[in-house]
């Protein structure tokens, strides 16, 4: 399984490298469309190779997706934490009940009951 993972990563690296080499041309990125940037007085632009724009878009999309999923699954994590706290509370109550039940028993019999 480890070799399959390494082979997949090697193929992925070769594919990304070929995309980067094929898209080395410079492109101009602007913060806002030209009409809107003139109204706002912010004529910001930067020149980057196209592969950086492509990879930046992929990374930004992944990060947005991860954050979106983390926020979406918040209710499930909260419910699991609540159930975990309830389980701990019930386990403490069970231990306390067993201790009260076994307080008059012989120690050896109490240990045997606890083990079974």
From TrEMBL:
Domain Lipopolysaccharide assembly protein A: 23-94
Keywords per UniProt: Cell membrane, Coiled coil, Membrane, Transmembrane, Transmembrane helix
Transmembrane regions listed in the UniProt entry: 46-68
One cellular-component annotation, GO: plasma membrane
Coiled-coil ranges (or none): 80-107
Protein name, entry field: Lipopolysaccharide assembly protein A domain-containing protein
Species, as recorded: Marivita hallyeonensis
């Amino acid at each position: 399984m480890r070799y399959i993972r390494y082979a997949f990563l090697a193929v992925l690296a070769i594919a990304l490298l070929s995309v980067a080499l094929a898209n080395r041309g410079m492109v101009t990125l602007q913060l806002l469309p030209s009409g809107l940037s003139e109204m706002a007085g912010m004529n910001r632009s930067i020149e980057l190779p196209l592969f950086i724009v492509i990879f930046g878009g992929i990374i930004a999309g992944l990060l947005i997706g991860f954050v979106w999923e983390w926020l979406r699954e918040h209710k499930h994590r909260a419910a699991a934490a609540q159930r975990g706290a309830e389980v701990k509370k019930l386990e403490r109550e069970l231990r306390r009940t067993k201790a009260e039940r076994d307080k008059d028993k012989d120690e050896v019999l109490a240990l045997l009951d606890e083990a079974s």
